[in-house]
Batch of 4 targets.
Target 1
Amino acid sequence: MKKTLLVLVLLAGFSTIGWHFRDQFLKPPGGLTLYGNVDIRGVDLGFRVGGRLQEILKDEGDSVKAGEILAKIDREPYEHELANLDASLAAAEADQRLKQAGFRTEEIEQARAALAESQVAKKDAENILTRQASLVGGGGTSQQNLESAQAALDQTQQRVKLAEAKLRLLEAGYRPEEIAAAEAKVAQAKAARASATMRLQDTDLKSPSDGVVLTRAVEPGAIVQAGATVLSLSLEHPVWVRAYVHEPELGQVPPGTKVILTTDSQPHRQFHGTVGFVSPKAEFTPKSVETPELRTSLVYRLRIVVADSDGSLRQGMPVTVSLDSTPQ
């Protein structure tokens, strides 16, 4: 019995020494150890336009680079739309040039000739009226002939005014409002063409960032709607670690604190990070619980930005976080 008690006492002593040894020699250099998980953002990719899916260039597990084309929609309908709007723009620009240039020189010369002709007719009508007026007193002509000559003169005078007005109109060119309307039509046609160009470009689905394809949702030949998910992508940057710190240790990890990150799969591989965000609110403990015993159980969420991720950090992977004691 005494031997058994002695053995238990020795085991307890060795256990105490072991825990003390671990705390003193295996404790991270910074003195503070936190635990968290890798948080990698993902994005569901889809086309901004609808159509028949022509080709998918990437499959699940493939790495992609920012700007790389991942899938394509049939371009032909959008090419026809752009060609139609090119023609509309050309017509609007031609009308704008016409309005800005004014009427042709030949049209103006024709109006001048018409004015000169009407002036000659007016002069002839004046001469006839003068002769009729001189003859009506001596009985050489009738009053009716005199009145007819006066009417003919009035008609030629109106033709002269009409010809003068037409000449002034042609010489002045188009009104400012007509030119402004033509310019507005050109601007409208350009905007429509720019939208069609954008839609044509959107038939190529490009990667917004470096990453890895997680899910391939559709296959070539399918009719996809605008915005429907075609591929799901896990982004390589930024890579974050979500960790939690107790309230008494909160002052040791303000934003900007340098930390070292290790994983269970690569315990000897160190990653470096920086605390980028400290939540202003405690989590897991109800706000109403503020007893002295439970106050120290409050934890605050940290977001740590990993500076040198090499692609081996995976979503949700457990991570050990310690303060970086390297001199800055």
Target 2
Amino acid sequence: MKDLIEEIVKTLVDNPDAVVVRESGDDLEETVAYEIKVEESDKGKLIGKNGKNINAIRLLIRAAAAKAGKNAIINPVRD
């Protein structure tokens, strides 16, 4: 799931090398949280107009996690 998030985010931003996705939780937990960190100049592209990009990413990841019987939380990191 982490790799899927990285690929989606890297296609959106100008500097894909700066994309970092951290996963918290383990295989035994029902809920897994992902933190996405991008460069300051790419945060607008990650979030999108009125949050459309980040909400679409959340929707895709929640659907994929539900298929695996888990819950997923996506949070962009604010520095």
Target 3
Amino acid sequence: MRNVVVTGLGFICSIGNDRAAVLDSLKNLKHGIAPCPAFNDPKNPIRLTGAIRGFDTSSKDPEDWSWPTAYTVKRDILRGFAPHGLFAYCSLLQAIADARLTPSEVSNERTGMFTASAGSAGMLHHHLTRMFESGVMRCSPMGVVNSVVGTLSFNLVAAFRILGASCGFASACASSGHALGYAHDEIALGRQDRVIVIGGEDGNLETILPFAGMRALSTVSDPRLASCPFDEKRSGFVGTGGATTMILEEESIARQRGAPIHARFTAWGQASDGYSPAISHPEGLGLAASMTNCLAAADILPAEVDYINAHATSTPIGDRSEILAIKQVFKDGKTPAISSTKGLTGHGLSMSSILEAAFCCMAIDGQFIPGNAHLVTPLTEAAGLHLPTATTSAAIKFALSNSSGFGGANVSLLFARA
């Protein structure tokens, strides 16, 4: 099994549109949650999102969009994008520059691309409405590729001339965790030398608001109080969108070309709850098994883990379930520091896993632990666990990132100081 390292990171997210801005937000606990004008409807109790700044993708015609002038997107590429396709394109350009990859290193048979998204509900609604109202021949020929699940793969594999393995993953909030895990295995088993992994979500009304029907969204209107993972007053999550790109490489190849190495991607594990299509197992059994499988694959003890970036979304059931899962696994010896960065970002749905995995790499690289923003009164089940409320310097060798999705899909990713 070959070693896998992380050499490139790119971000378009609520707490920053590049690595430097994201690092500043993590260290100083600057949240990106703000009122969303599109949600301002008396029939709708939801008011907040994790806001993506510098982009206007409100039109259903991509040619009407605007984005930062640092990025150039050709018209023929833009036409196939959903909003998160544009976010992903920009984050991917960042990651390529961060990893110092040449065009030939991106486009060859030993470089693959795995993506994760739920598709674009907004674009799909727009195209279907047009089809029923005006007839199918009045629809955009790009209506399928810019709306259905797989839209990121369709567009970015073509745009960047990817010749290696490519695949899209859809397992709800564990999607980009699965994409990272299977990308790890492609490299570790020698099938690929490099895999670009991308997760993205539109983060607009059509993507987020349906979760209110599940009673999963916070109705709190104060951005400082709405997303408060692990707090007794938590009432639901705040949705967000954007995109995150991570570039994984075989370690010796990365070192040979002098690439920056943010962390080693040591191992991953997964397990299912087999309990409910929508909520976590009340005792956290599936997530506990996922973490156990991950640590076994890495051949390390729970006491060796220094930091856990928790999935905790600020929902009453989910946060409690994860705390109980962590207590099952980390019951002897040293207890790791635990934080949920969703207090800063909001919940990025299928993007959340890769976003938080990237945060773990930055924490390892910078030797710090992000605090739990907006945590005032920890839930009673967390007694005895270390939930820091401020960002602290720390010697981190191993960091674990958890994700859980609908249907009880659980993924745990372990990163180490290289």
Target 4
Amino acid sequence: MSFKRIQPIPSAEEIQDVLPLPDDLKAKKDERDAEIRAIFERKSDKFLLIIGPCSAHDVDAVCEYVNRLARLQEQVMDKLVLVPRIYTNKPRTTGEGYKGMAHQPDPEGMPDMVVGIKTIRQMQIRAFREAHLTAADEMLYPSNLPYVEDLLSYIAVGARSVENQNHRLTISGVDVPAGMKNPTGGDLDVMFNAVYAAQMPHVFFHNGWEVSTSGNPLTHAVLRGMSYNGRSIPNYHYEDLVHVAEQYVARKLSNPTIIVDTNHNNSDKTFSEQPRIGLEVMRSRRHSALLHNVVRGLMVESYLEEGAQKPEEGIFGKSITDPCLGWEDTEVFVKELAGLV
């Protein structure tokens, strides 16, 4: 074997003991979870907006963004529930490039995953404490989830992970909404099978334990477009949404819900198209009672500064991975969305 041991990783319980979620924030977390859960259970007609940077690489910039989002939430609270994207892991198609905060180097330029895990948890707690908005994160590595699970109100499973058995089984034990993206090739059966599997109870091996789960009825579908022979093919248009919604209802899954990702292959990674795409989805909801019931949220990539930069450029609040919508356009877009709910 070619594995070289670097250092032991503390357990999630050990990290939580060092960096606990304060009791007052636990109560606020319960309130936020209930508000978001109500959207999926059809107890609320509010619309969900999962919004924020492609990847969270700078603690101060992330917290500045989330604080601005909190002020915007106050203005649209009757129509929208805003969930900040604080995505701390980044999947890489080729394995190269920025992989997330847990992989960021220490001051001497060496990766230190224990420091990274602690930094992630500190950032999530700080953002929550300052803005009172619980966050969403992508579960790229199921073994990392216990370190932040008590802080999150939404979990995404990406297009490259959605067919993985470990991801599906882990989500079956989560008690917050979890979005299963369609795979990059667009196969809807893969997405629906992932939703079905995660809604079922399971017994399996997880982080050194044999565990049982009761299934997660809040697991749902996320449409992010697809790639075919190097070409992006969207799946957010009216006909696409009706087709998926009809299949969804026919499968008799719990809480049939579609979240539309306005970036990635739906926008051909053209970040500035996200408002147009989001507004089209809202108009489609108005045109169809089925879509109004099933399409219940959007995902948007947005940050303080529009576009993207190379990591060494160091521009505050600008993505170092996928290009994002800037704050001024974000604010206009969110208010327009609220007017169409």
